[in-house]
Amino acid sequence: MNPIFNQNIFLVKEKIGMFKASNNYDIFNPENNELVLTCREPNLGFFTKLFRFTDYKRMTPFDIEIRTASGELTIQIKRGVTIFRSDIDVFDGGGRKIGVFKQKFFSFGGRFDVHDHQDKHLCTLQGKWTGWDFKFNKDNKELANVSKKWAGLGKEFFTSADNYIINITDVAEESALRPLLIAAVMCIDMVFKE
């Protein structure tokens, strides 16, 4: 696991572009505004690009790469075409499967379970239908949260519609769950919010 995943707070900023079909994000350390990770969809096919501009956008496949600022591949997230629910596979930089996200068929606000590579349930990502707040929970204990607002460095700021904060509150630094949490957050927009 790359040591960058040991930090607890990440600021995610979506890269905006006119007529863009791919989802691209830059991930920063909010305390010093240093770019730590990039999230890109470099290999979109023609038909996927075409369907991204329709009402079928949520059903399109994706192949997301999360890289360090220096370009090292750390996580790859893949999903095929979907209709009702998604199973999303997560791989490390060497192509080994490290987990899977299993979307619930019906939930208010969005929900999926995070499993390891052996299909063991690790936690659940649950959103609120009233806004953009998501929590990772295991046995009624919050492990991390994702929000559009953040209290940090003595003041609170509100991020724009395409920016949000990931705050890991109760996961050990060397835990294999940490990269899966970051990967899951990158899927929120594509699975629930598009």
Summarize this, please?
With 194 residues, the chain is mainly beta.
Give the ordered list of helices and strands.
EEEHEEEEEEEEEEEH
Helical content, roughly?
Answer: 10-25%
Number of E-type strands = 14
Shape: globular
> End-to-end distance, in Å?
30 Å
State which percent range the strand residues make up.
Answer: 35-45%
Mean pLDDT: 80
What's the helix count?
2
What value does the Rg take, in angstroms? 16 Å
Q: Which structural class do the helices and strands define? A: mainly beta
Instruction: State the major sheet.
Output: 12 strands, antiparallel, barrel
Low-confidence stretches: 153-161
Q: How would you write the strand order of the largest sheet?
A: 1-2-3-4-5-6-7-8-9-10-11-14
Describe the structure.
By secondary structure, the protein is mainly β. Helix content is 12%, strand content 43%. The chain contains two helices and 14 strands, in the order E-E-E-H-E-E-E-E-E-E-E-E-E-E-E-H. The chain has a twelve-stranded antiparallel barrel with strand order 1-2-3-4-5-6-7-8-9-10-11-14. A two-stranded antiparallel ribbon has the order 12-13. Mean pLDDT is 80; it is low at 153-161.
